[in-house]
Design goal:
Structural class: alpha+beta
Largest sheet: 4 strands, antiparallel
Order of helices and strands: HHEEEEHHEEEEH
Number of strands: 8
Number of helices: 5
Helix content: 25-40%
Mean pLDDT: 91
Strand order of the largest sheet: 1-2-3-4
C-alpha cells in the first residue's frame, strides 16, 4: 500500500516505479523470512517435546499478530493436544497448555453436518473439541487450533457450537461463536514482550 501511494504521489517522476519494486521485494522477503522462522520454530518445539519424553506428535507452527519471531505451536498426540508459544528471538522453554483429544459420537455428528464439514476444511482438520454436559443435554464446541492468544487449546479466536438434547441428538444447526480478547495497550505490550523476551525467567 505504501509503495502504491508513493508511486502515485510521484507518478510523474522517472523513479516512481521503484517504490512499488521495493515494496514487492520487501513484502516477499518478509514472507520467506516468516516461512523460515516457522520451520526453525517447529524444530525447536520438537526438540523440547522429545526432551519431555513426548514422541510422535504432529507439530504445527503459526504466526502471531504482527510479531515476526513469535510463533504459536500446536502439538497433537494420540491422547492430547498441546498449545504453546515460542519466540525464535530467544527460544525459551514452552509453557504448554494441554487438553484431552476427545473422541465421542457427538463430535462425529457435528463433523458430519454441512457446517461441521466446512469448518473442518477451513481449519485444515486442526480442531479441538469440548463437551459441556448439561441437565437437558450437552453443548459441543469445536475450536480452530491455529489462532489464539492464550495457550489453552480450548480458547481459540472462533469456533462452532452445537446443542444436543438429552437423547444425544442434535437439536439445532451448529452456530458460530467468537472468543476474541480485548485489544488494549496492555495486551499489545504483552505481545511485544513475548516476541522479544529479555530473558527466559518467568515471574514468580
Amino acid at each position: 500500500m505504501i509503495g502504491l501511494l508513493l508511486a502515485y504521489r510521484f507518478r510523474d517522476a522517472p523513479f516512481a516505479g521503484r517504490f512499488t519494486g521495493v515494496a514487492v521485494f520487501a513484502s516477499t522477503a518478509y514472507l520467506f523470512v516468516g516461512l523460515w522462522i516457522n520451520g526453525i520454530a517447529e524444530l525447536e518445539a520438537r526438540k523440547q517435546l522429545r526432551a519431555a519424553g513426548i514422541v510422535g506428535a504432529q507439530v504445527h507452527t503459526f504466526p502471531t499478530m504482527l510479531q515476526l519471531p513469535h510463533r504459536r505451536v500446536v502439538a497433537i498426540t494420540h491422547g492430547e493436544i498441546r498449545v504453546g508459544f515460542v519466540s525464535m528471538w530467544r527460544p525459551c522453554p514452552i509453557d504448554w497448555g494441554v487438553a484431552p483429544r476427545l473422541r465421542d459420537k457427538r463430535i462425529d455428528a457435528v463433523l458430519a453436518t454441512r457446517e461441521g464439514r466446512i469448518y473442518d476444511w477451513f481449519a485444515n482438520g486442526l480442531l479441538a473439541a469440548e463437551i459441556v454436559e448439561q441437565i437437558d443435554g450437552a453443548r459441543v464446541r469445536l475450536v480452530d487450533l491455529r489462532y489464539g492468544y492464550v495457550p489453552d487449546p480450548l480458547r481459540g479466536l472462533w469456533g462452532i457450537e452445537t446443542r444436543f438434547d438429552a437423547a444425544g441428538s442434535i437439536s439445532g444447526a451448529p452456530e458460530r461463536y467468537s472468543d476474541r480478547p480485548d485489544v488494549n495497550g496492555a495486551a499489545i505490550s504483552g505481545l511485544f514482550k513475548d516476541a522479544f523476551p529479555a530473558s527466559c525467567e518467568r515471574p514468580t
